[in-house]
Amino acid sequence: MTVYIRPGPPPSGVLAAPPSKSMAHRAVLCAALADGESRLTGLAHSQDIDATLAAAAALGAQVEAGESWARIAGAAPLQAPAAPVDCCESGSTLRFLIPLAALTGRPVAFTGRGRLMQRPQSVYQELFASQGLRFEQEGDTLTVAGPLRPGCFSLAGDVSSQFISGLLFALPLLDGDSRLCLKPPVESRSYIEMTRAAQSRFGVASAWLDEYTLAVPGGQAYRPRDMAIEGDWSQAAFPAALGVLAGDVTVTGLEPGTLQGDAVILDILRRCGGRAEAVPGGVRFQKSALHGTKIDLADCPDLGPILMALGLLCEGETVITNAGRLRLKESDRIAAMEQELRKLGGRIESDGGTVTVRRSALHAPAGPLWGHNDHRVVMSLTVLAAAAGLPVQIDGAEAVAKSWPGFFAAVRQLGVEVQTDA
């Protein structure tokens, strides 16, 4: 799909944040592991969430889903499916499910699309090898087999919190107690806490013994419950940036006391000079005189692309550190943003995991921009084009379906001039 962004009036209006994709993944799996029926409300369907729902069904849960809800009757223990589990392009789906598949005691195969099956799985590969378990990848098919045994699991804390969360889902179901010993530094700690919070809602507990050690008692059982999914701060970052750059945008449905690490977007925008104030039911973001700042992405990597775009319109210099994991996402997000922003006259450079962005005199590109099959790249380019008043064509814009299929309808609601060829 190709989209065309045209210069228009300043964006303004009220927009409801879509439900949190990160919490939805976790709630679906907790419900799938519970002995009984759970109902999840406020659920937004996307390719990633639908992949997790389908995977839960493949592993034995009974799943019924409507426009904004899902009813899930759990399957404990899980069942090994005969056919490979298709994780689409969802890293959360794949990494959360690998340890759970190892509980079945039978081989379970996973497949995926895009760059998913090329993304690193060495943490699990080493863990499975240490227990003498099967972990084999041939092309785009990964096959694992258990049974996983309780014990002390030592793993790096700076590769991806998804590995830690995957073990947290599975270890409570084992007969014995386990420990997760994380090698510092531990990045994306907020995502670990989101997993623990979701598990707590479903009756499963773990505890920090110290800053790097999690105790996970075995012999636990997930209990069914109904749960409403909170608003997504990661997705809210796009209309929020649009508001402080160019207009007057209120985003509703955001929990002020959330565990989501991406809620730091509020602090980042304010440190850049952005006007962001709490209003009844949401946060109002108004056009502001912005300046560069230093931003640490260790706990909020998904904000990287929109912050790179934002930096081009901030006075001075914006330095983004601990961004190395962006190279291992749906695209190499650092390289992708460098390539596309330079087409607009953007001054951006990187050195490993550090990205430096400088205020730039932007211009319409000579040709189309490309979305790199990455939803956050497409959304970031859209926001920048709209804020800067640039006529821009973005090819590969269908990538937004991965996390926010209604993104273009949402920005139209704010007055952004968007046309699609689909």
From TrEMBL:
Residues 11-409 form the Enolpyruvate transferase domain. It catalyses: 3-phosphoshikimate + phosphoenolpyruvate = 5-O-(1-carboxyvinyl)-3-phosphoshikimate + phosphate. Pfam families: EPSP_synthase. GO terms for cellular component: cytoplasm. Phosphoenolpyruvate binds at residues 21, 91, 119, 162, 333, 376, 402. GO terms for molecular function: 3-phosphoshikimate 1-carboxyvinyltransferase activity. Pathway: Metabolic intermediate biosynthesis; chorismate biosynthesis; chorismate from D-erythrose 4-phosphate and phosphoenolpyruvate: step 6/7. The keyword Cytoplasm applies. GO terms for biological process: amino acid biosynthetic process; aromatic amino acid family biosynthetic process; chorismate biosynthetic process. It is an enzyme of class 2 (transferase). The active site is at 302 (proton acceptor). NCBIfam families: aroA (TIGR01356). Belongs to the EPSP synthase family. Catalyzes the transfer of the enolpyruvyl moiety of phosphoenolpyruvate (PEP) to the 5-hydroxyl of shikimate-3-phosphate (S3P) to produce enolpyruvyl shikimate-3-phosphate and inorganic phosphate. This is 3-phosphoshikimate 1-carboxyvinyltransferase. It comes from Candidatus Faecalibacterium faecigallinarum. The gene is aroA.
